[in-house]
Model the fold of this input.
Amino acid sequence: NAGVMQNPRHLVRRRGQEARLRCSPMKGHSHVYWYRQLPEEGLKFMVYLQKENIIDESGMPKERFSAEFPKEGPSILRIQQVVRGDSAAYFCASSADGEQYFGPGTRLTVT
Amino acid sequence: GENVEQHPSTLSVQEGDSAVIKCTYSDSASNYFPWYKQELGKRPQLIIDIRSNVGEKKDQRIAVTLNKTAKHFSLHITETQPEDSAVYFCAARPNQGGKLIFGQGTELSVKP
Done:
């Protein structure tokens, strides 16, 4: 049973470009969560999705950030017009209905 | 609002000693409390968790205690080994199936 998959593992974008981060949950998991981790800081919740539905987006900035979890395919976190402050590790986690298991993360660097 | 405080931020122990990390949470509706271990550049790994209807849980050298009245929970690692060195995060879940609120992390260093 493959774990949570994320790609790309590393992403470099120039200021103003778009970043797309992908997350495939563990088999049998229908809940996906995205967290952001700034260097030497803890994990901050961004958004919680189930298939085709956003359940809780209270941690996601209102502008430039969006997330989706379509019926088919991975969950996608999209950041438009990236700025230097968006540089961070973005982790997704999945769960069936309890324990959350994390993917390896995408390290976004904005130059 | 929802908040989790974690102490200490750094902890250094000798191999074989015990390590204790403490967390407090603000939302009394929280019902699930996991602990994660994160090595440098790696993903957070779930090492133990406890639910609000249980006061203590143990798994080999790791134990977690929960005091719901005081809104405290703690991680205890006995007989520490150098491979226990990592950053440890506590978390609380305010709602069933929902987001985790994380503490700030504790960098544990076990010296051989």
Summary: Chain B touches chain A at residues 32, 34, 36, 42-46, 49, 89, 91, 97-105 (CB under 8 Å).
